[in-house]
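User: Run a structure prediction on this.
Assistant: Running it now.
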Amino acid sequence: MKVGIAISSYKSDDDVIALVEKIDLESWPVDGVLIVDSFGSGKLNDYCSNSNINNLEYFNFDVNLGSAGNLNKRLILSTEKEWEFVLALNHDALVEKETLIELLKYSHIPFIGALYPLKFYPNKNFYDYSGTKEIGPWRSFGVASPSKDQLIPCIWSSSNGALYNLKPIRSGVIPNSSLWMGWEDYLYGLDLKKSGYIQFLVSNAVCEDSYEFTEKKIGFANVVLSSKPDWYHYYRTRNLWLICWNYHPSFMRFIRIFTRTIIESLLICFGWKEYSRRHSLKLQRQGFYDAWNFKIGKKEIK
């Protein structure tokens, strides 16, 4: 079985180079590595052109692909190889060699679409099983101990560390690049499920995720919440509602995403400073409006 690695890059030359050299030094069980970049500085191109690492390729695009477009390009380019599976990594790769080896143990499963490592958040001290259910509040809840079940059916997980079967890609089940930023992994998971492919979270393939969290005071309690720039609220809201209304409409998905949107609005009101609060709520409303009008792609955030 042939397996490759596809790495996403955007203004992260040094991190990507360090990752590629780590993969080579540790002799990961792969048949090649490709890198997909946007507006490359030239450093990665020079590195790959002069590297002695076998089957290392670099692709640069003169547009900002965004996270959704980059995943789309990486998986399509991977199908041009003889690979059967590809491990998708960001510049801040979560997985280690041992994680990949554990994921590969289950690649023989019929109709497998993707295998995901189990993420552990050290700054919240829990394991993330949120992708085993439909969209809920988000990564603010989890369990303190990993499941004893090695394989857990799931709907989606982050592409950073996902082992994708390339058979669905070759048959036309491809990540949707129109979301541009955020929730493309969720949409692709739903697409795989609709097309008859199964996905599993692999509990013995654990990796640590340094997702940004910060502690905020809400009333008399200190709560640890996701910490992202204000503009994330626009894409979080817009893309989830695009998925709900246009790509995979269902009544229960509507209820879950509506509940999530309300909860997020309340947390914005109680958890952020005044300017950021007003700005974030404005962006959230704009995201909802643009989803209703089916506005996709990159948005100029003000």
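The radius of gyration is 19 Å.
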